[in-house]
Amino acid sequence: MAAPPNADASPPDAASPTLVDGVSRDLLRDIEHLAVELAGIAGAEIAKALGGLLAVKYKTAAKEDEWRDPVSEVDNKVERMIRERLAENFPTHDIIGEEMDDRPARGGDFVWSVDPIDGTANFVNGFPLFSASIGVLHKGVPVVGALWCPVSHALRSGVYHCTRSGKLRFDGADVTPKVNPAVRRRLVGVPVATVSDGFWETRKTGSAAFECAMVAAGLMQAARFASPNIWDVAGGLALVFAGGGIARRRDGDDWVPMEKFAPTKEAPDLRYWKNELIVGEPSAVEKMCEAQKAA
Questions:
Q1: Binding of Mg(2+): at which residues (predicted)?
Q2: Given this structure, which CATH class describes domain 18-294?
């Protein structure tokens, strides 16, 4: 499966030529174009390997029956390929990848956050709920997202993508979420269903990136994540914002707006960023936040 032939970056919108902190729209389109291409290539590698006998290692395993965090040969191959292309096209941009620690431009304004396969446990088991996720941050703000998903609102694989202040697209075509008013209980993604989630039908897919894409496309109304890493949600947050959604992060007992990734005292390096998040349609996010406070 090659990168989608029409998965070009978003066409110009009738907006200011400058979107974020002096970054030109043309530059963002160039970044999006490459991100879409790389996500599509990652998807092709994943599709080619799915169903075969993969070499799989586990990052943590205290005992034989406690294997956790699988990583496949495809994860490493895809991230290596992405890093090589970024070194050629954007050598001054930093990279935070799940599988490799190398930081080519630590401290730079642009950071590519890459998860070759978010949902590797699903992937190695042949369960098609995962995503190849690429998110680009500018000074911590998600400005480009490109996520290849094996299933979608269109009932096929493809790349969801966007630039900041632009439209959500799937393989180059606009995505306009459609909600059936006859459906009284919408779907939400949760790490563990609780009584406070009783407003919705709950699901756990095993991939935060995939759930962000489903939220952005309107297939899920919201999703809550217990402690995602930056590479799990950087690209997905860009999609959620492009789809008209919002995000909240936990701050003690409160839920506060999540608009950018910022270093903290506990995690001065964004590589180690973690925070409980809720993303989705504004009304659903607010309802879920209130329910979590009351729980």
A1: 98, 115, 117-118, 232
A2: alpha beta
Q: Please give the Cα distance from 38 to 65 (Å, whole number).
A: 36
What per-residue string of b and e applies to 214-245 under the rule 16 or more CB within 10 Å gives b?
A: bbbbbbbbbbbbeebbbbbbbbbbbbbbbbeb
In whole angstroms, give the CA distance from residue 40 to residue 9.
Answer: 13
- Locate the domains of the chain by residue range: 18-294
Distance (Å, rounded) from C-alpha 285 to C-alpha 222?
A: 6
Q: Is 117 annotated as a binding residue?
A: yes
Q: What mean pLDDT comes out for the span 228-246?
A: 98
Q: Scanning the structure block, which residue is given the tokens 């939400």?
A: 188
| CA 3 – CA 40 distance, rounded (Å) | 4
- Closest Cα to residue 212, out of 122, 119, 127, 139? 119
Q: Are 170 and 153 in contact (CB under 8 A)?
A: yes
> What was the pLDDT predicted at 143?
96
CA distance 287 to 289: 5
* Range 135-155 average pLDDT: 97
The whole-angstrom separation of Cα 295 and Cα 292 is: 5
- Binning pLDDT at 50, 70 and 90, where does residue 124 land? confident
Query: Is 171 marked as a binding-site residue?
Result: no
Kindly report the average pLDDT of the chain as a whole number: 89
Q: What's the CA dihedral at 79, 210, 280, 24 to 10 degrees?
A: 30
Q: Tokens for 65? A: 């029956």
In what helix (H) or strand (E) does residue 170 lie, and over which residues does it extend? strand 169-170
Higher pLDDT, 67 or 111: 111
DSSP 240-259: HHHTT-EEEEEETTEEEE--
